[in-house]
Specification:
Beta-Lactamase; Alpha-Beta Plaits; 5-stranded antiparallel sheet; 5-stranded mixed sheet; about 45% helix; diguanylate cyclase; Nucleotide_cyclase; PAS-like_dom_sf
Length: about 325
Amino acid sequence: MTTHPETGDDAGVYRTLLESTQAIPWRIDWASARFTYIGPQIERVLGWPQDSWKTVEDWAMRIHAEDRQKTVDFCVSQSQQGTDHEADYRALTADGDYVWIRDVVHVIRRADGSVDCLVGFMFDISERKRAEDKILQLQKELEALSYRDPLTGIANRRMFDRILDVEWGKARALGAPLSLVMVDIDYFKQYNDRYGHPQGDACLKEVARVLDRAAARTRDLCARLGGEEFALVLPATDEAAALAVAARCARRLAQAALPHAGSAVADIVTCSMGVATIVPGSQDQPAGLVEVADTRLYRAKAAGRNRIAGSAG
């Protein structure tokens, strides 16, 4: 294995420059697929002896198994086309760990255009990757928070709108029913006036917990739309099943027995609900379903509250 990339009077100068960098320089002869040079920095970074890097196979087998095939295929393809390229991958260390590497590759071609050799630098980008991963995790956490109601922890209006659109598309494609239950806490202003806003917040949290548990299937969504208004999105659910879910919500809220001395319909916290169901057609829109459920919710409130209104009443 050649220990330096140049010959002649300048060999020592080139070698000193190359070997004083943090990056790891290397050269591969294209015809033989053998390393003709790799910097001694490789041993410090990955632990493999400098003279153990003999062929492209040595490089490939020291790539993490999950990254190996796609990295090798990409680099070979780009090199065959004579295209300079970069590749990020996890390189295995001699002690069984891995280091994130960015390989920057330059293709050297002969006068006739054929590939003569590949030269490049390997950079240890582990710290950068850790920072990037942390940023991505923070972004995911922030995105998750942006879809959550900060008080109750359930989905917010933004998530409700997004999920309703998604489930609407699925229901229309499959010809399946989609149900929506709009929920409003009865006499909540009076509750706040009597017990104070901190207790009102506690009430909202408990109602959210009850509703969320009542909508128990994985795809069911419970969201707080604002104030004391909530909604349940129930995919693949006909009206009878949606009315049963609403009744379960009312029953469990009654079991929670949150005192409400300011209510005109009961001595505990109750809710009014409007239920709407549709098998979406090509001309229908989600806003139409929301409007119907809202209309039925206000019908329930006008009829005396603490009740559920569907298509029949």
